[in-house]
Amino acid sequence: MRQDQQYWFAAKRYGWGWGLPLCWQGWAVLAVFVALLMAGSVFLSPATRPGAYLGFVALLSGALVGVCYWKGEPPKWRWGR
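The chain above was modelled as a monomer; its predicted structure follows.
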């Protein structure tokens, strides 16, 4: 892996996964995720179509995890510094 690569998402200090974004690209991905989540809750009403809404949320969440895995620090279990 290249040394000059800039990660978009930092690894969490404890546990497995990613924390807050490190640069504007990560913040843009997070903002698009939140905007699509809000739009989905308006157009796919969770009260009337819960299955469609849960599928939409699962799809968006999977896409976010995929981007974090691709552009974030390598995931592994962490016990602090």
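Residues 9-75 form one domain.
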